[in-house]
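debug: dumping io for the single-chain case to check the tokenizer round-trip. Nothing else runs in this session.
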Amino acid sequence: MNRVKAELGRRRRVLGGAVCGLVAALAGLALAELTTAAVRPEASPITAVGGAVVDATPVGVKEWAVREFGTADKLLLALGIVVVLGAVAVAAGALAVRHPGAGIALAGGFGLVGAVAALSRPEATWRDALPSLVGGLCAAGVLYLLVGALTRPGPVDAPPGGAWSMDRRGFGRLVAAALAASAGIGYAGRRLGAYGSAGATASRADLVLPAPAVPAPPVPPGADLRVPGISRFLTPNRDFYRVDTALVVPRVDAQTWRLRIHGEGVTTPLELDLRQLLDRPLVEHDVTLTCVSNEVGGPYAGNARWLGVRLADLLREAGVRPPSQGGPADQLVARSVDGMTLGTPVEAVMDGREALLAVGMNGEPLPFAHGFPVRMVVPGLYGYVSACKWLRELRLTTFAAYDAYWVRRSWAAQGPVKTQSRIDTPRPSAEPEAGRVAVAGVAWAQHRGVSRVEVRIDGGPWQEARLGDADGNDTWRQWVWPWQATPGRHVLEVRATDGTGAVQTGVRRGTVPDGATGWHSVAVRVRPGSRRKA
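debug: decoded output
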């Protein structure tokens, strides 16, 4: 009987230690959050560790996460880090009951991991390590106090094995006090963080965009076919896709924003604030952006009306010449405020296309999630080589001398957009009724335009679809084909022809290294039509 009681006491002791570990971890995270408010959002332990995990994740795993979870991949990563932290905290607390030094060292060690991760991030300074170090020391200290209270010799009538150093109510009150203090500190950290970004929020709210010197023509009335289920011709900002590595969306204050242009072939380096940029002639242009991670038929494409300054004009002002005119630099490296780098061909930026430093999107300042206050937009190139958000620096160099972020991770150095088409309706596994069915979607081949879209059923002959009116060569085009659907299972396929006459290839390839290819297909089951009674 004594042996059973001793075992029960040991288990209670371990359980109490696990509780101590979790409470200590929460206290550490709360204090780290408060310290983060005094440094910068990217220094948060979870954000720093998450960023390091993203950098170390194999390309195939990243592509799977983007494909399966979209922008929710960042939330899932953060939750995963919290789960791992919780498991480490439980282990540290249970270990500390028997081996206090080892358990407390394990609790503090996670703070050290966060500090190393923070220092590994682009643009990091020694200050970025502070939240993780402070949080780790706090967790270690709280665990020491709680486990000490738990294992201190208890009253005479304590259960065999010394499960509790104090009565359960007393221990519960101690844990509740620690949790309450953690909640208060965490709330203060959140409020201070929100206060720190209030200036950026106010600067966007106060920004009035000047009228464009070169306004975009109205969207042709026939560009939007208004077929139920088809993507809208202009994608609302709230629905525009977002694929990036930022676990925390940078909130840049427009009042303090600066852009630096320098590097090889720059005879007059430039440094501009937002007002100086807005004082230049602004151009309005409709451009469809596409992510290189977009699978055939995927959702990572969107069309918007952008407002910005012609990038080629700024580069010429800085004395830059494209390689075709003897310029020494063939790569323009854009750097964001969070350290992301994208490399764009100088020739493409200066060949006459409407490459912009965009400040507006669909009639309003850029949303924070899409790069406020300034981002790049270059028609005809995938986003990973052209669409730098939260821009702060443009450096002229060569592809031979420098590999940007994604190039170091197995992606091609140059990424022209490939011709693609997508069936938006009917959806996969849809069950339309027999009869006339509108098969419709979008097709894109930015900077070349789309001249033809064709659909076929069950591998039969290709049938030409009706195209929506073109809004230039830099946007997608809607298309629709009326199908006399017969009952049974069918496979629908689509292909497009670009403005040069090149037909979209049907060869299926994945997204790595320079974009997916193949025809989008949709399988449906057509139900027999309903019969009316005479």
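debug: round-trip ok. The longest helix spans residues 2-38.
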